[in-house]
Design a protein that fits this description.
Elements: H1 13-22, E1 30-32, E2 40-43, E3 49-52, H2 55-59, E4 61-64, E5 94-97, H3 105-112, E6 117-121, E7 129-131, E8 147-149, H4 151-164, E9 166-171, H5 188-199, E10 204-208, H6 227-244, E11 249-255, H7 271-278, E12 284-290, H8 295-298, H9 312-332, E13 338-344, H10 358-372, E14 377-381, H11 400-411, E15 412-417, E16 426-432, E17 439-445, E18 452-456, E19 460-466, E20 476-477, E21 480-481, E22 496-498, E23 501-505, E24 509-515
Parallel strand pairs: 1-18, 3-6, 3-14, 6-9, 7-8, 9-10, 10-11, 11-12, 12-13, 13-14
Antiparallel strand pairs: 2-15, 4-5, 15-16, 16-17, 17-24, 18-23, 19-20, 19-22, 19-24, 20-21
Helix pairs in contact: 6-7, 9-10, 10-11
């Protein structure tokens, strides 16, 4: 039986631990699946699973304040971009961060383990960030901007991306400082960013014109900015890219908020109006999805709750948003690939449980749904900032969803198979990464009390994620807690062998099952 490097099969203790997870679980009818016969649905980008590093993390500034964090202390006088926060934002919702240490050995080890990926450096703050024209960056941003991105900081992004095998995705400055006296967008800042990137051996793979143009005012756009203004500016951006950077993928519109609640004080422009005004020009259709606003800024108590985090309605919000934006893609950019360039548990930094095992159900289920639907790229927000980060921003230690991301990266290949839709279990299937003919199944059981059961005709290797408490920040693989080694080494991700026949999927667990001998012709 062929196994990819780094995966060892453990028995004994792991089996006993699994039994403990599953004992006394109520049973449901067994679902029979033959991995050798699952048909091919399509393929996804090799960098399908990706992540965001917010521009404000790179420059320093005020980002969403973690719940119960001491980060609420004001920054030291003279700190980088101390006043940088979204236009009209409530200062109490934000906390200052010094620039992220992209040279951190731990951060690089953990990011490289998710490679290949796209690293999107954007966010609301990017819309009003000034890129310095020389190595001597100004200490305060020029008029019409809110932050300064120094060449040193941007070089840090390029060095990091190179070290962890990530392709850079970004967006342009669009605030009043990037415009002429008539309010027309000028390409000077964009031209400078691309030229400097090339000059030090870097590459920007893809770019959106601006972050979330549906909420342009929040992103620092000029007063009265509307769809017509966006259309005019977007055409100028496309002309610049085609003339100066023809290899860059143009993404758009990068909209959000169409199918979920937006802040009550937000000025909103519909994505349909933006697309109608901007005309053709995008190479891939991009959008953002958050199922809700977090407690931090919703002003709506109970908009989301921990109890709803595994509900069908909550998980299906991914499909609802995709359906809306797919209809716009079909109308305005037919046939173009779809990229989800920003997503997480909830907007505004996530809810308190975004950092726990509870959100791992959404994380994996969303990847499964979107791969099955043909979406080509999904960029989680963020890699390491606020409560929805894959890593704790203070310690850079993995949170539960990071371990899920690591298993996805190692086990799920780019060929997507049709596992069907089944009551009582969310089931997804891909050809296994790096093993010809092999299949990986992802079985998600959201039920807290009832087990699910799969019957497989061949031996499988099993990787079950569980937690003693759903809101725990510790996750177990086959009953053993996952944690970094003393030298930041990743642990062995050891499987348990399951013989042909029924395989139990315990309550409130997620299980990857690899079948090396599937001999699925779609996976040859």
């Amino acid at each position: 039986m062929t196994r990819s490097s780094g995966f060892k099969v453990g028995m004994g203790i792991a089996i006993v631990a699994l039994a403990g997870i599953q004992q006394a679980a109520a049973q449901v009818p067994t679902l029979s699946v033959d991995p050798s016969r699952l048909p091919r649905l399509g393929t996804i980008d090799a960098r399908f699973q990706s992540y965001n590093v917010e521009m404000v993390e790179v420059t320093g500034g005020r980002f969403w304040k973690p719940y119960g964090s001491s980060a609420s202390a004001p920054p030291a006088r003279g700190a980088d971009n101390a006043g940088n926060m979204p236009a009209g934002g409530n200062p109490s919702l934000f906390a200052y961060r010094k620039p992220i240490a992209l040279s951190s050995r731990r951060l690089r080890i953990l990011a490289a383990a998710l490679a290949p990926a796209y690293m999107r450096v954007s966010g609301t703050w990017a819309n009003s960030t000034y890129f310095a024209e020389s190595d001597d960056a100004p200490s305060t941003p020029p008029g019409g901007f809110s932050a300064v991105l120094s060449r040193e900081r941007w070089k840090g992004v390029i060095d990091f991306a190179r070290a962890v095998n990530a392709e850079i995705v970004t967006s342009m400055a669009t605030s009043p400082g990037a415009r002429d006296a008539a309010g027309l967008w000028q390409s000077d800042q964009a031209r400078r960013l691309f030229a400097y990137t090339r000059s030090i051996g870097g590459r920007i793979a893809a770019a959106e014109f601006m972050n979330e143009p549906t909420l342009a005012a929040m992103g620092g756009a000029p007063k009265g900015y509307d769809a017509a203004a966006y259309g005019r500016d977007f055409k100028a951006f496309v002309a610049f890219i085609k003339a100066s950077e023809p290899d860059v993928i143009v993404l758009g519109p990068g909209s959000t908020g169409e199918t979920t609640t937006t802040p009550s004080n937000a000025e909103f422009i519909s994505a349909g109006d933006l697309l109608a005004a901007s005309g053709p020009g995008i190479d891939a259709f991009s959008y953002h999805h958050y199922g809700a606003l977090s407690q931090r800024c919703s002003g709506i108590p109970g908009q989301t709750t921990p109890e709803a985090a595994r509900s069908e309605a909550w998980l299906a919000s991914t499909d609802k948003t995709l359906a809306y934006y797919r209809s716009l893609r079909d109308e305005f950019a037919p046939g173009k690939p779809i990229w989800l360039t920003e997503t997480a548990e909830a907007a505004c930094g996530g809810n308190p449980w975004a950092s726990t095992f509870l959100d791992t159900f959404r994380y994996l289920d969303q990847l499964g749904r979107l791969a099955r639907a043909g979406v080509q790229m999904v960029a989680h927000n963020t890699l390491a900032a606020s409560d929805y980060g894959l890593l704790d921003e203070r310690t850079l230690r993995p949170r539960p969803s990071y371990w899920a991301a690591l298993l996805w990266r190692r086990l799920m290949g780019t060929i997507v198979l049709d596992a069907g839709v089944h009551h009582g279990m969310h089931l997804y299937a891909h050809c296994r990464r790096g093993v010809r003919g092999a299949v990986t199944l992802l079985a998600i059981n959201t039920d807290r009390t009832n087990a699910a059961s799969l019957r497989l005709p061949a031996t499988s290797e099993r990787y079950t994620l569980s937690a003693d408490d759903l809101q725990s920040t510790e996750v177990k693989l086959n009953g053993t807690a996952l944690e970094l080694g003393s030298n930041d080494d990743l642990p062995q991700l050891s499987a348990v062998t399951s013989p042909p026949g029924p395989v139990e999927i315990g309550p409130a667990t997620m299980t990857f099952l690899t079948v090396a001998d599937a001999k699925n012709p779609a996976c040859d």
